[in-house]
Amino acid sequence: MPAFTYQAVDPAGKKSKGLVEATSLAAARADLRKRNLLPLSVEATTQRAGNAGKRSTHRLNLKKQVLVTRQLATLIGAQVRIEEALKIVADQIKGPRDSSLLLNLRSAITDGRSFAESLEDIPGSFDEYYRASVRAGESAGKLPEVMEHLAVHIEDRNRNRQTLQLALIYPALLALVSLGVIVALLTFVVPDIVRVFTARGAELPGLTRGLIAVSDWMQRWGLISAGVIVVGVFGGLALLRRPAIRLAWDGWLTRVPLFSSLVLRLNSAQFSGTLATLVQSGVPLSDALQAAAGTVPNRFIRARVTQITRDVQDGAVLSKSVQASGVFPPMLIAMIASGEASGRLGDSLDRAARDQASSLKATVTAIVALVEPAVLLVMGGIVMLLVMAILMPIVGLNSLAG
């Protein structure tokens, strides 16, 4: 049944609000009256799944995705039907929008749709990896196992994101404060000092003249330049939403010297981890490849994985197809070949995924560790140049006075 949000008052005049499941708006009002509540407003939540008119755009944040997925995995693994599991989780989760999202999913399932089909009707609420994993798990009859692996994956992703955010907080604050100090010096302090030096008729050092030129430029063109940068950033993001431009951009990222290694390693870890999870859960290889292709962030590499999927469906060997794609490291190809030879492809993929994840984590940790001293050096150097540009003329004036 669909969900409705309501506001009502009890006989004592106390207002309350919440969610109620009912077959229609009239049934929802009747249910509230049975509870001895006077409905003030009753409205349907997001459009029911399966209706193409409107689609839910509400998205669970990552912490709530962790909670919901873990609870669903536990309940489904305990042989609780999916619609009942969704009802239990919806009753426990905080937030009417989150609860209504789960209840509408339950409504679609009770109307005869599968869990995967219900998720496909609200693509803005769950990402492509989530939907593809559920679809593959249902098609293979391995939904409990896939949900368990999915819960572990989302928990790891949430943990890694929190670690990265905490590591970057201090460098980001340091850069922001330093940038504010530099802008303030160039905008307010330097012009006053220039007037003093000009009135004395002193000859200014080259560093000071350069600082004055930068200060004048910022006063004249600073706001315009900032506006151009903001417009350029948002315009670039809008262009990247176009499939052809995004494909070309992602292809460039796999070739640019400074970032290509990190980009390839990130996508390789995502691909191998997803494929390992699905293969170990008993999902057929062709279905697992199709689901893994939808989880690769880089569109260029995703297109190559899609070609690998077609080759395997046509009877090609997985390791040969992966090697022919040219976007995955030799170690991953060797592990896939080893798994195919031993008949333990899932275990080999799992080891490869762990190796890729460990290598990626080490790289990210090293980059994050370098960010803080790099910010300190760059910002400290700029501030030092500013101070020197201001002090050098002052020292020159003192020597003349002496």
Summarize the structure.
The chain is mainly alpha-helical.
> What's the number of extended β-strand segments?
3
Largest sheet: 3 strands, antiparallel
Mean pLDDT: 80
Report the CATH superfamily of the domain at 170-402.
Type II secretion system (T2SS), domain F
Can you tell me the CATH architecture of the domain at 170-402? Up-down Bundle
Beta content? 5-15%
Span of the ends, CA to CA = 91 Å
- Structural class, from helix and strand content? mainly alpha
According to CATH, the fold-level topology of the domain at 170-402 is Receptor-associated Protein
Give the overall shape, derived from the CA principal axes.
Answer: flat
Strand order of the largest sheet: 2-1-3
Helix content: over 70%
In the predicted model, the low-confidence regions spanning at least 5 consecutive residues are 47-56
The CATH class of the domain at 170-402 is identified as Mainly Alpha
